[in-house]
Amino acid sequence: MICKLCLSDFDSILEVINDAAQAYKGVIPKDRWKEPYMPADELRGEIESGVIFYGWVEDELIGVMGIQAVKDKTLIRHSYVLTKYQRRGIGGKLLKHLMNITRTPEIVVGTWADATWAISFYEKNGFELVSREEKNKLLREYWDIPQRQIETSVVLKHKNDLCLS
């Protein structure tokens, strides 16, 4: 079941993110990897900056995906599913839910350029890679990330057919 998460879910959100992020170890640039992948203060900062998390819950929180309205776009942020539950369609269900509640003309997501499985996931769900120039512009304007992360990331976008504006 999908539900909007709240601060009482903080530790579970952190657990899902750091478990699933192990897939990036040895794939993303070594200078961008850290243990834990997302420390608690970083997650607090993301929530304070407006990231709203939704989760897939069965007996426990299994998957998380954040959404953040920034200017005229909606950003998909921090999409993770516990390792033992991956490849069961949970990420796709969370993504479709967030796409259905989005009311901006465009939905964008950034991910690591070497995370080919993540890029493929978003492409299968109707997102398209943007050019290098557009990626650099979008990451600088809509995200607050270091230059090194901009250099090693990609951005995908999706036109929101459900937008009412």
**Percentage beta strand:** 25-35%
Biggest sheet descriptor: 7 strands, mixed
Class in CATH?
Alpha Beta
- Give the helix level as a range of percent: 25-40%
Walk me through the structure.
- With 165 residues, the protein is α+β, with helices and mostly antiparallel strands.
- It has a single domain (2-159), classed as Gcn5-related N-acetyltransferase (GNAT) (Aminopeptidase, 3-Layer(aba) Sandwich), CATH 3.40.630.
- It is built from 6 helices and 7 strands, in the order βααβββαβαβααβ.
- It has helices spanning 10-20, 40-48, 90-101, 116-124, 132-142, 147-151, and strands at residues 2-4, 52-57, 61-70, 73-81, 106-112, 128-129, 153-159.
- The chain has a 7-stranded mixed beta sheet with strand order 1-2-3-4-5-7-6, sandwiched between helices.
- α3 links the parallel β4 (73-81) and β5 (106-112).
- The protein is globular and about 45 Å long.
Relevant terms:
7-stranded mixed β-sheet, alpha+beta, about 160 residues, 7 strands, 6 helices, about 35% helix, Aminopeptidase
Quick synopsis:
With 165 residues, this protein is of the alpha+beta class. The protein has six helices and seven strands; from the N terminus they run βααβββαβαβααβ.
